[in-house]
Amino acid sequence: MVNRTLIRSLEDDNLEVELNAMFGDAAEELLLDSLEDANKQFDVNQIVEGKIVEINEEFVVVDVGFKSEGAIPKNEWEEGEAPPEIGQTIKVLIEEVEDQNNLEEARNMISLSKRKAEKIIQWETMMASVQEGQVVTGTVTRKIKGGLLVDIGVNVFLPASQVDIRRPNDIGDYIGRVVQCEVLKIDEARRNIVVSRRSLIEKQREEDREHLMAELEVGQIRKGIVKNIADFGAFVDLGGIDGLLHITDMSWERIGHPTEMVAIDQEIEVKILQIDREKQKIALGLKQKQNNPWTNIAEKYPVGSTVPGEVVNVMSYGAFVKLEPGIEGLVHISEMSWTRRINHPSEMVQIGDKIDVKILGVDPQGQQLSLGIKQTQSNPWDDIMQRYPENAEVTGKVRNLTNYGAFIELEEGIDGLLHVSDMSWTRKISHPSEVLQKGQQVKCRVLSVDQARRRIALGMKQLDDDPWNTTIPEKYKPGQLIRGKVTKITNFGVFVGLEDNLEGLLHISELADSKVENPEDVVKVGDEIEVKVLRVDSDERKIGLSRRRVDWTEEQHRVEAEKEQQHQQAKADKQAELKGGLGSEGPLIPQAE
């Protein structure tokens, strides 16, 4: 026996697509097979005429010409519909016979349906009047799996993909709307009609597109609707064809995203910039409706003029400053300060700052302006000679230490170099860190100023007189015995500290009477030793010392001095001989004795 509940729940909509969406093909085949079997035996599923013979609280009894009457649930007469009357003739669908083996017994009633008969008649009428490709109009009644139901007299299926050219976010928004659709497919056996709203729109757009392409010309101003927005621009429907409004053609001013200028479904006026009729591509412009602010830019902003502006962007290499809508220029990081060392432009300016800039360069073709901030201020190097004259005493802070010296900050952005050789008259300094520390305040003397190269040379030792010209030659005489402490040992000798910041060299040959290979075999750093002053050379700023001659007599010194004099004379004669032997006749060859 056919499941009555299943039949009624499906037949109420009479849509094959709903059957598929809700139950699948297997349920449909089961239903059709069941109806077919019943029809073969008892003419079930046929529409017949009958006369109303009785009406009670639940059923309307109808005589359809069989020995048994049929019953129709009273609720098949909907509210607002004319109520049934005894003697009225109506068309009904034979649904089922309760007991097929006792059909002749009057007590066995036939199950009938007025509502289903009406729907079947509606479908048959619709099938006879509707053809594929025909345009129909109906109201969207509800949303089902895969699409919408549209009432065109019967319910037809509008797939979600056929609702519009671009699939809506929620097709349920169409419920209650009257739509026009094209009939795509009619399946009479299944009583199924599939329609498309998209195909109608596409056909209309194609007609509009051909008409529009014939009308469009470069330079025209057209109205359009913004249909889609991307990072690179917006697509504008001109009435059948979309054109691209690129972000760079939206405004003469800098914009970060197209949404700053347009919104979806907004109607705007655009200018036709380019047309590719073969590919049906159109380039649109919004800013081109207005005059180009770069026209006559050189006259508006002559080089050397100072103008106000607003910082609109800060990059690692500089800052962009807007002078007026659509006119921006770059202040390079090197043009921000005369003296300050800037690691990033954000140290000087921030977005939104109102500043004055000087026009350094104008490029109308490239639409570029070169701007400067420091040029709006006086250059502190212009009067550097007056503020830091040579020989002047100055005070500054140690900003940086290098192997060759220290940079002393005299004022913000103005440094002087204190070379390692100008830190002490007497002390041998290998690295400035032996004397100075970062951040330390020091006094110096200005030695020289190079305004063109922006360099100032400083000296610390020059604050005092040179002791090599005064006190050292007077204090240390050749032959004098003194005591000192070993401060440094090298492969050629030993440095001995005689007083603060003054050292003498004890050559390896003067360490002992015997030959010394390694000075550390004789003395150690920190040892206090007695030495004799051999010589004081003020020009070379050196004091020669000897340890092996500490106990020498005057005679020994005289003999050593004669030997040294002979050695120096022999050395000089040898040099003269070599020099004289390289004449025009070639080198002299010594003869055998």
Describe the structure.
- With 593 residues, this protein is α+β, with helices and mostly antiparallel strands.
- It folds into six domains: 122 residues, Nucleic acid-binding proteins (OB fold (Dihydrolipoamide Acetyltransferase, E2P), Beta Barrel); 72 residues, OB fold (Dihydrolipoamide Acetyltransferase, E2P), CATH 2.40.50.140; 74 residues, Beta Barrel (OB fold (Dihydrolipoamide Acetyltransferase, E2P)); 76 residues, Nucleic acid-binding proteins (OB fold (Dihydrolipoamide Acetyltransferase, E2P), Beta Barrel), CATH 2.40.50; 80 residues, Beta Barrel (OB fold (Dihydrolipoamide Acetyltransferase, E2P)); 82 residues, Nucleic acid-binding proteins (OB fold (Dihydrolipoamide Acetyltransferase, E2P), Beta Barrel).
- Helices cover 18% and strands 36% of the residues.
- It contains nine helices and 30 strands.
- The strands form six sheets. It has a five-stranded mixed β-barrel with strand order 1-2-3-5-4.
- A hairpin with a 4-residue loop joins strand 14 and strand 15.
- It is elongated and about 170 Å long.
